[in-house]
Amino acid sequence: MNCVRQQLFNQKNFWSLLISAYSVKLLKRFTDASNAAIRGVLQGYDDDDRLVGVVGYFSKSLDVHQRRYLVYDEKLFVIVESLWHFRIQIADRHVVVHTDHVSLRHLLLQKQLHPRIMRWLDTLSEYDAKITHISRLKNKVAD
Hints:
- It is built from 4 helices and 5 strands.
- It has helices at residues 2-10, 71-85, 87-90, 115-124, and strands spanning 26-33, 37-45, 51-61, 94-99, 128-133.
- A hairpin with a 3-residue loop joins strand 1 and strand 2 (37-45).
- Helix 2 runs parallel beside helix 4.
- The protein is globular and about 40 Å long.
C-alpha cells in the first residue's frame, strides 16, 4: 500500500486526480460504516449519469462513545458527518446519498426519535440531499 501511495505523490499531476465539484452536473455520495470507522466518497456525474471523477474522500475513526452506536445510528451518523465534511463542495447543490441501510429511507416516518437523531435530522435539513438505498454488493466505492 505504501508503494502505491508513494507513486501517487511522486506524480506531477497527483492533485489532478480529483475533480472540481463545480465541473459536474450531479453529485453522488457513497457512504459506509464499520465498528471502528466511517468513510465515504463524493463523485461527480455528467448529464448521462456517467462517472466523471472523484471530488473527494472522507474517513474518520470512531471514538469510544460512537462505537457504541446502534447500526441505524451509525449509518445516519456517517451521512451527517460526510455532508458536513463536503459542505463547501455541495453548498446549494443537489446531492444523492447512497447507503446500504434500507431503513434510513423511512426515518421521517418514525413517531419517536432519540434527541441525537433529531439533531442529525435538523442538520440534514440544511442540505439538498436525497437518501437512496444501494445494495451492499454495489456499494464497493465506500468500502
